[in-house]
Specification:
Layout lengths: L13 E2 L3 E3 L5 E9 L7 E6 L5 E4 L10 E10 L8 E7 L10 E6 L2 E6 L5 E6 L17 E3 L5 E9 L7 E6 L5 E4 L12 E8 L8 E7 L10 E6 L2 E6 L5 E6 L7 E2 L6
Parallel strand pairs: 1-6, 2-6, 11-15
Antiparallel strand pairs: 3-6, 3-8, 4-5, 4-7, 7-10, 8-9, 12-15, 12-17, 13-14, 13-16, 16-19, 17-18, 19-20
């Protein structure tokens, strides 16, 4: 059996239901994201605590689906001793890892600390549950941009995976008054097929008419080719995902802890 990726563009990955695990006591938020390739049945994984016990695994969750993003939200007990690390082990039964654009990612307290997929039978990632985990270099990842205002705010992450023509793509983030508060002009240029992440914290406003607005544009008029996409996370929840547009796409969202989604307007 040959596992060669097809030459046809892949559709933007769909999303499995997000799995959440919240223990009692002090803990550190950890997200694990897996985007399988066309042979999802070959991929399995385990999450071990510092004692070597399995605390989560693919056997305990819904099966991975081909080219469908799986997200595990969990909260791990905080250990700060040097020799107390958690361990994520991912395996491929065929021995060819996860074909691009598939991947796995591990986020600790909102920070990406590991990204992989290019392995044979097994890959192992060790990480601390301390508030400031050590960062392992991630392949093809632009530096994460962080913005933290004073006062109460809601964490918002914007992910953009451009296609082969990133220079066609621009974006703006507007506050409820219509002022541009972040934009592609203020950040590093997008790179081809390289994930860009903006981490910001927006002033919390729960009035019905106080929505933020993310506007993404393509100067050529063909949007972002799959497997490229953009995603918006509010307080850790994915509230918008897109890429299949022409010249412009608009996403409106609230900065309340439980945001409501406004449909993106269609374009003439």
């Amino acid at each position: 059996v040959s596992h060669q990726p097809s030459g046809e563009p892949s559709p933007s990955p769909t999303l499995n239901p997000t799995v959440s695990h919240q223990p009692s006591g002090a803990c550190m938020p950890v997200d694990i994201r897996i985007l399988p390739d066309e042979h999802a049945s070959e991929t399995s994984w385990n999450l071990f605590n510092p004692r070597g016990d399995v605390i989560n695994s693919s056997d305990q969750e819904d099966p991975l689906l081909l080219e469908t993003l799986f997200v595990l939200h969990t909260c791990l007990r905080t250990y700060c001793a040097d020799d107390l690390e958690y361990q994520f082990v991912i395996r491929d039964s065929y021995g060819d890892g996860i074909f691009a654009p598939g991947y796995y990612e591990i986020y600790v307290d909102g920070d990406l600390i590991e990204k992989g997929g290019n392995f044979t039978t097994e890959d192992v990632a060790k990480f601390s549950s301390c508030p400031s985990p050590s960062i392992s270099p991630s392949p093809t990842l632009n530096p994460t941009v962080s913005h933290q205002p004073s006062g109460p705010c809601t964490p918002v992450d914007i992910h953009i995976l451009p296609d082969e023509y990133p220079e066609d793509t621009s974006w703006n983030l507007l506050n409820p008054r219509g002022d541009v508060i972040h934009s592609s002009d203020q950040e590093d240029p997008l790179e081809p097929k390289t994930l860009f992440e903006l981490q910001t914290c927006l002033a919390t406003n729960c009035a019905d008419d106080s929505e933020y607005q993310f506007v993404i544009r393509d100067s050529y008029g063909d949007g972002i080719f799959a497997p490229g996409y953009y995603e918006i996370y509010v307080d850790g929840d994915l509230i918008e995902k897109g890429g299949n547009f022409t010249t412009e796409d608009v996403a409106k969202f609230s900065s309340c802890p439980s945001p409501s989604i406004s449909p993106s307007p269609t374009l003439n």
